[in-house]
Amino acid sequence: MSDDAGALPVDHQLLETLLDVVIPPSPDGRLPGAGTLGLTDTIARTVRQMPMLRPVLEYGFGTLAELAMRRNAGGWGVLTPAERAEVFAEFTATDQFFLPAFLFLAYSSYYQAPRVVEALGLEARAPHPKGYPMDEDDLTLLDAVRRRGKMYRGC
Amino acid sequence: MSEMTADVLIIGAGASGAALAWSLAETRMNIVCLEQGDWVQSTDLPGIATDWEVRQAADFNFSPNTRGRREDYPVNDSESPIAVSMFNAVGGSTILYAAHFPRFRPSDFKVRTLDGVADDWPLDYARLEPYYALNARMMGVSGLAGDPAYPPKEVPLPPVPLGKLGMTLARGFDRLGWHWWPSDSAIATREYEGRAPCINAGTCLVGCPQGAKASTDVTYWPVAVRSGVTLKTRCRVREITVGENGLASGVIYYDADGVERRQKAEVVVLACNGIGTPRLLLNSRSKQFPDGLANRSGLLGKRLMFHPYAMVTGLFPESLEGYKGPTGCCIMSQEFYDTDTSRNFTRGYSFEMLRGFGPVYSALWGMQAGRLSWGADHHRDFADVFDRTAGMVVICEDLPDEGNSVTLDPALADADGIPAPKITYRLSENSTKMMAHAVARGKEVLEAAGATATVVESPLRLAGWHLMGTARMGTDPRTSVVNSWGRCHDVRNLFIIDGSIFVTAAAVNPTNTIQALALYIGDTMKKNLATLFDD
């Protein structure tokens, strides 16, 4: 575990299972569940870049752990995936801050993971320095615009 | 500590400051520029790493309030539906701009005469045309000659590729018989003046590691510095000082270590954008200028204009390859640009087509638009949005209103303790009606192009990129801050060259016009050096 990951205000098992709640594996198995990708370091890096997320996460994860305990004394770890989804839905139905913050972190880390990017049909790489080739355009479609003639007011 | 007196001191190294520094460099005067930000190295730009889309929300966010870098200053925009976007560095906001680079149209300088609203500019399109052309060569503008929406103009480089997305949208305009044209873009589509060509990476809004996008740190500044201009970075000006004679005598600034310093100057030029310039002048109060420097008209900071933006995004049934190509430059339409008395608003707007998003931003956009669920249906929803979106921004002409203003916030300050600006702004009834018309037409054209659904965000909040009008030009000192060539009526050795001096806003991106004005002002200064401070 990196220092970044250690700084996250959350139990890592809770984080990874919660990631699987919001992004489970795709039904066809082509796309993995978010909890299986080892996204903790990526999320920690993002939280370090956006420190305003930290208190929201602390509060949210703490509340989820409490709600899980109320449901089962064993806590979040012993709940089934369906029960975790219910607890998450119960909490986010009344809290307006944690859901967008957590989804931001989940989506932004998941969709930059190489395995996911490749499964989407893209190369898992930075845009630079390779870029993307693009074909020449057929601009004959502009002929109709050209035929309209001058369309500005001269002064 | 006292420094050698500069002949010309430019404050701000963004779009206009760079152009003026380059223009004046040939005089061999001692020209100094103070910039609160630093050089941005290409290796620091997000586009070289896979987390580039995330950094757009973090340390390369448009908002200085979100970035919170030391070189940024906060802006209180809580009393505005539009939040301010800017970047502080050598190159200024051109580091993050889309490089969409249209000119104003001739009618934009004559709105009072033609449409009976606002005021005419004290100069016209013909006066600026040679400077637009010069700027096109210096920045390396790509596009396609022959657009019937404009007088003939030279375009040094071929247009950016439209790609599958652009051609899909173009067919929508064609079906409706509406104007469209490949955008003028400050992007090198071929190798140009030592700059590498665009590789369609799509990271323009977080900076261009390729150097193809014409931010002024790769266009004007290298030439200006080689020509002898002194550019000092991480130097934040606190106030402009004034001598007993009522002329500007220099500035007090904080250097990179936070040490207070002074720079004397014969001429002071403000190039700090439409927020930063009134902020600095309002922070430069003195016995002679108790309401802020150069503010005897009382107009300093007033008549703030943004361009109210709306975003209309279409969802399409097929792949559009929208992650390829310059982000903000594709095609534009000026079908509804001019006043039409049959509509319920005056003046008009442009459409500017946007590319699609990468995987991360597709997910974040889908979440914000309410089109992406978490849980069991997530992957199905994502497949509907990723590589299936194409959109446009509507850019509306904002008419000047003295109620829209920049003032000093009584509590907020930057890292050096300098009072920060506060924005007070409301959308006018005219803008509101115009946006409603534009959104309806935007949906119409997207549907004509094949969109099966549309998503609207209006007004777009984090869209205060274009900062204009807060120190307007004019011939009458009672109703304007600067004259027709940027010299302050009240202080004859003080010039303003940024978007503050705009009289009206037009309905296109302003950077090309800001720079053309800076070049025009530079030329006028050079031609009148011996009589620069005369009546």
Order of helices and strands of chain A: HHHHHHHH
Distance between the termini of chain A: 68 Å
Q: What is the mean pLDDT of chain B?
A: 97
Note the main sheet of chain A.
none
Order of helices and strands of chain B: EHEHHEHHHEHEEEEHEEEHHEEEHEEH
Quickly count the helices of chain A.
Answer: 8
Question: What is the gyration radius of chain A calculated from CA atoms?
Answer: 23 Å
How many helices of chain B? The count is: 12
Q: Roughly what fraction of the amino acids of chain A lie in strands?
A: under 5%
Protein chains sharing the most extensive interface? A-B, 56 and 67 residues
Rg calc of chain B? 22 Å
Secondary-structure class of chain A: mainly alpha
Tell me the overall shape of chain B: globular
Question: What order do the helices and strands come in, and which of them pair?
Answer:
The complex is a heterodimer of chains A (155) and B (535).
Chain A: H1 3-6, H2 12-22, H3 40-49, H4 53-71, H5 81-92, H6 98-110, H7 114-119, H8 143-147
Helix pairs in contact in A: 2-5, 3-6, 4-5
Chain B: E1 6-11, H1 15-25, E2 31-34, H2 52-55, H3 64-67, E3 76-79, H4 111-115, H5 125-139, H6 163-176, E4 181-182, H7 220-226, E5 230-232, E6 236-242, E7 248-254, E8 260-270, H8 273-282, E9 309-315, E10 331-333, E11 349-354, H9 359-368, H10 378-385, E12 389-396, E13 405-413, E14 419-424, H11 429-448, E15 453-457, E16 494-496, H12 511-527
Helix pairs in contact in B: 1-7, 1-12, 5-12, 6-11
